[in-house]
Automatic annotation (TrEMBL):
HAMAP family, sorted: Exonuc_7_S (MF_00337)
Coiled coil: none
Name the UniProt record assigns to this protein: Exodeoxyribonuclease 7 small subunit
Any one of the GO CC terms: exodeoxyribonuclease VII complex
PANTHER family noted in UniProt: EXODEOXYRIBONUCLEASE 7 SMALL SUBUNIT
UniProt signal peptide: none
Lineage: Bacteria, Bacillati, Actinomycetota, Actinomycetes, Mycobacteriales
Compartments reported by the entry: Cytoplasm
Length: 72
């Protein structure tokens, strides 16, 4: 695994997490990894997807708050 896959996911911004997730998906789609490597990569992909969802939820909350304040 590369240094990018050693990065703490909680430290990644949305774009970095999304880009790494795209890379993980491409690697998994190519196949050729042994079962342990595939499972490890899949687990990282799941964690990256969750991190992206967290960023999007935060952005959504900020937009909703701004819209609510604008309506007042």
């Amino acid at each position: 695994m590369s240094n990018a896959t050693d990065t703490d996911i909680n430290e990644l911004g949305y774009e970095a997490a999304r880009d790494e997730l795209v890379s993980v998906v491409k690697i998994l789609e190519q196949g050729g990894l042994d079962l342990d490597a595939s499972l490890s990569l899949w687990e990282r992909g799941e964690a990256l997807a969750k991190r992206c969802e967290e960023h999007l939820a935060g952005a959504r909350a900020r937009v909703e708050k701004a819209l609510a304040e604008a309506d007042e």
